[in-house]
Amino acid sequence: QVQLVESGGGLVQAGGSLRLSCAASGRTFGSYAMGWFRQAPGKEREFVAGINWSGASTVYADSVKDRFTISRDNAKNTVYLQMNSLKPEDTAVYYCARRKLARATFRRDDYDAWGQGTQVTVSS
Hints:
- The strands form 2 sheets. Strands 2, 4, 5, 6, 9, 10 and 11 form a 7-stranded mixed β-sheet that branches.
- This protein has strands spanning 4-7, 10-13, 18-24, 33-39, 46-51, 58-60, 68-73, 78-83, 92-99, 113-114, 118-123.
- It has no helices and 11 strands.
- It is globular and about 40 Å long.
- The chain is 0% helix and 48% strand.
- The N and C termini lie far apart (40 Å).
- By secondary structure, the protein is an all-beta fold.
């Protein structure tokens, strides 16, 4: 059973940056796609970014395109989310997730393992 542990969240002013990390257990990390999702209070969990097994292909939600960058280091079993030009509307709990196939998608139900989440708060 894979375990995913997010870190790097915190409080930042609008326009600032944060880098989230997600460390995965297990020896099959490099075979599977990974994604980042977020959930704001009173809202459904939404897709943010996804990356395929090798890191060569990425996909983003329109709301974060050109501001956020997803990447992965398969040697370290870690996926990252670099968040720049943060806005108050980016405030949410951010979750990483694994899809047990090679290609990332934006559908929440395609992911079968989730971390516990890390809080990101952007002040105006």
